[in-house]
Amino acid sequence: MTPIRVGVIGIGGVGGRVLEGFGMHEQTQVTAVCDLNPDLAKRVAEEHGAAAWYTDYREMLRGSELDLVYIAVPPKLHHRMAMDVLERGLHLFCEKPLANSVEEAQEMWEAAERAGVVHAMNFPTPYRSVWSEFSRLVEEGHLGELRRLDVTLQFHTWPRKWQQNPWIAGREQGGFVREVLPHYIQLIQHRFGRIARVHSEMTYGDDPNLCETAVLATFELDNGVRVLVDGQSNIAQKERIAFTAYGTEGTMQLADWSILRTGGVDEALETVPVPENNRHLGLIEDLVQAIDGKPAMLFDFRIGYEVQRVLEAVLSGGTHEL
User: Fold this and answer.
1) Of the N and C termini of the chain, which has fewer Cβ atoms inside 10 Å?
2) pLDDT-based confidence at 309, cuts 50/70/90?
3) Based on the domain organization, do 178 and 117 belong to the same domain?
4) Domain check: are 79 and 131 in the same one?
């Protein structure tokens, strides 16, 4: 099979890690990279052999032969870039959240469907071996009857030390609610059912330009199960991220993305050893399969749009029926 030629827009942070996955997969070839930092773009291009480098994504789209484009830039830029990519009929892989509004997300989803290309979101957790084990236990009835889901997001500081950039602390397109919560919205709707109702209370500091410092929200699923979302930043505690499912027969928790804990009736939670895998390679393998016309597990722009609807309801505060 001829390698799939990949162009990457945005190569810092998460984008750089996914780019490494494309470089490792035998059926994808990083053909071009684009970043506003010319030194970074040039260095990464050199690391990928014959890759071209750009500081303007439009020049990359005009100047390189590509099959797939990965967008890994701040949310505010997703819509414009995605529409340009789709206009050229290229397959598209995008960071979350899909866009910076529900309207943008819907337009991107509809444009991708019209273009007839493969379109997918970077939701990597379902490709982790720990999530596969979590799902297996759910399917085998470990929980019994599901009673509630909890999402806990606690950050000593936001942005984290490795996330210092001009936008991620801002209210317009940054904050931990936009950056982290979409992963759990996706997991909830994929495994447990559609979120039908959202009530949220957002807390902000005095600076109108800065993102939230806390969120307290409840979701109600179509089946009536409730979800509690409790998030805080700028607290003394070490960072803690946890997704907990409470049932009549058992409790299960995915902690800090890669730790699975389970417990039965009247038992404390115990860690279940699960070998870690390369989640990005698993996701990229499914991208390759889909582009080759084979069955694949991908979370497309329709799913990105459904996540965006919930996310925007949380951010706007109050009560929303979805």
Assistant:
1) N
2) very high
3) no
4) no
The overall average pLDDT reported for the chain is: 95
Asked if residue 138 and residue 199 are part of one domain, the reply reads: yes
Report the distance separating Cα 181 and Cα 186, nearest Å.
9
Calculate the alpha carbon distances from 303 to 16, 146, 184, 276 in Å. Answer: 24, 23, 13, 26
Residue 24, domain extent: 4-124+280-299
How many C-beta atoms surround the C-beta of residue 264 within 10 A?
14
pLDDT tens for residues 241-267? Answer: 999 999 999 999 999 999 999 999 999
CB-based burial, 30-69: b 16+ in 10 Å, e otherwise = bbbbbbeeeebbbebbeebeebbbbeebeebbeebebbbb
**Same domain, yes or no: 58 and 142:** no
Tokens encoding 113: 């469907």
What digits encode the pLDDT tens for the residues 194-228?
999 999 999 999 999 999 999 999 999 999 999 99
